[in-house]
C-alpha cells in the first residue's frame, strides 16, 4: 500500500494514524517515501489502465492469455520500442522482449494509439484512455 502526501513548510504531511492502522493489518510491510514525479505517476496510471482495461478486453475477445496479449501488443504495435533480443546463457538461448516500463509518457501514448488502431483492425475497439477509469470501474461494480 502506498501513501501520498505533500510537504508543508518542509515537514511531511500525512495521516499517520491511518497509515499505522493500515500497516497494523499486516505482519510485514514497507512504507515507501519518494519524491513526487508527475511523469512517473502518469506512466504508472497508463500501465494500470493497459493491464486492467485494455489487455482484458483482448483476452475476452480471443480467449488468449494476458501474457500472450502483452507480448503480442509489444510486437505488433510497438516494434519501434520493443526490439526482440536473444540472450545466450551457457548452452541455452532465450528470447527477451524488453520491458514497457522504460517508455516515456509520450512513447506510451504513441504505442497506445497503435494499439487502438490494431484493435480497430481486428474489430475489437479499444476505449480511449480514461484518467478516471478506476473510479468508473468501482462504480460499475458497486451499482
How would you characterize the largest beta sheet? 2 strands, antiparallel
For the biggest β-sheet, the strand order reads: 1-2
The string of secondary-structure elements, in order, is EEHHHEEHH
Beta-strand fraction estimate: 5-15%
Q: How would you describe this protein?
A:
The chain has one domain (37-142). It contains five helices and four strands. It has helices spanning 16-23, 38-62, 66-77, 105-121, 133-142, and strands spanning 7-8, 11-12, 85-89, 92-96. It starts with 6 loop residues before the first strand and ends with a helix.
Write a short abstract of this structure.
The model has no long low-confidence stretch (mean pLDDT 85). The two termini are 26 Å apart. 50% of the residues lie in helices and 10% in strands.
Amino acid at each position: 500500500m502506498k501513501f501520498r502526501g505533500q510537504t508543508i513548510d518542509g515537514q511531511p504531511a500525512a495521516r499517520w494514524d491511518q497509515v499505522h492502522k493500515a500497516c497494523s493489518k499486516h505482519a510485514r510491510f514497507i512504507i515507501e517515501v519518494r519524491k513526487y514525479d508527475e511523469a512517473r505517476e502518469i506512466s504508472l496510471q497508463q500501465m494500470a489502465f493497459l493491464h486492467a482495461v485494455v489487455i482484458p478486453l483482448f483476452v475476452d475477445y480471443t480467449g488468449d492469455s494476458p501474457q500472450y496479449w502483452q507480448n503480442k501488443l509489444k510486437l505488433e504495435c510497438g516494434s519501434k520500442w520493443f526490439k526482440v533480443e536473444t540472450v545466450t546463457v551457457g548452452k541455452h538461448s532465450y528470447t527477451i522482449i524488453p520491458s514497457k516500463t522504460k517508455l516515456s509518457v509520450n512513447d506510451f501514448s504513441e504505442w497506445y494509439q497503435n494499439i487502438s488502431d490494431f484493435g480497430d483492425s481486428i474489430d475489437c475497439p479499444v476505449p480511449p484512455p480514461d484518467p478516471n477509469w478506476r473510479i468508473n470501474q468501482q462504480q460499475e461494480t458497486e451499482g
